[in-house]
Amino acid sequence: MLGHRFLKFTPQNQSPFDKLFDIFKQLLTYTSGDVGEALSWLTELDKEYKLTNKDYGIGDFINDLRDKGYIKEEQPGSGEGFAVTAKTEKAIRQSALERIFGKLKKGKQGNHKTTHTGSGDEMSSDLRNYQFGDSLEQISMLESFRNAQINHGISEFMMSEDDLLVQEKEHKSQTSTVLMIDISHSMILYGEDRITPAKNVAMALAELISTKYPKDTLDIIVFGDDAWQIEIKDLPYLQVGPYHTNTVAGLELAMDILRRRKNANKQIFMITDGKPSCIKENGGYYKNSFGLDRKIVGKCLRLADSCRRLKIPVTTFMIATDPYLQSFVEEFTQANAGKAFYTSLKGLGEYLFEDFEQNKKRRVR
């Protein structure tokens, strides 16, 4: 009997354009959508790793990008000064989804599973007696025939309504999600780029929801000294600013957005690496970067409790390892009755995806 047979790995054949385009999309994320800088980096990589050959060079790649509608000239006819198009933005999000979450198939009218049965489009393993109004395709014929044989015998086979068993469908819920991204200066401090992984996760989540959960809503907020909402198409161009961390402003804006959403299930995902260090007060800013300020922390905890009372769980993805910051996140999570993940940049996407897919939220009545 043969077991597993391992063969020599055969790399997937890619055209010269596709090979360079995969790298180019990643470079665009690092350069915040700067086409010129991304092409400069690609040229340097080509020198070191021989990405092109005598038949296809970087110039050919640029021409193909333009001809295929991935880039456009900022000044038509000049031949230089390129900008990305909406087609490229879509391709970057798809690439982020495949890289972080794996290749996912588009669902029909996918929404999130709950522990409740009801109307839905996916069969569960639970069976119940037939009720008026159940559709024929829900009837479990094998179990119903088995019931009929037990109840009436096999000599003169008959089946009544009481013999019919129906397979339950899983109830599915629509969810409104707000993703908060910290863009304070600490996201690029200490020689570590933390904003690019956050952007990749946001783009992948946006693509996941639009393809697999089209009835869901996703709103994206960035927060520094203030908080403001951005469009999904703006994600590749997102940059860190010389900001403090106004977590309070981000939470207030997220709650305001979710109040306007009609879905019963609402949630906030927050990606941050720093302590809350700023709030707005008396028309100005109250800032303190030298530790956890009691006034700022108190406002954060009160908002966490408000979210809990509104049945809005907050899941915090903490990408810093300082013990005193983790202690604050634990206190924040306890006040909200939410969840927290202390994760490296590498594991950020997997943690967020798993939590989003599990959707272990209460059914709001």
Describe this structure in words.
By secondary structure, the protein is α/β, with parallel strands linked by helices. The chain folds into 3 domains: 69 residues; 53 residues, no CATH class; 185 residues, 3-Layer(aba) Sandwich (Rossmann fold), CATH 3.40.50.410. Helix content is 38%, strand content 20%. The protein contains 10 helices and 13 strands. It has a 6-stranded mixed beta sheet, sandwiched between helices. A 3-stranded antiparallel beta sheet has the order 3-5-4. A hairpin with a 3-residue loop joins strand 7 and strand 8. Helix 1 crosses helix 4.
Annotation field: number of helices = 10
| CATH evolutionary superfamily of the largest domain | von Willebrand factor, type A domain
CATH structural fold name of the largest domain: Rossmann fold
Q: Tell how many strands the DSSP assignment holds.
A: 13
Number of domains: 3
CATH architecture of the largest domain: 3-Layer(aba) Sandwich
Helix-and-strand structural type:
alpha/beta
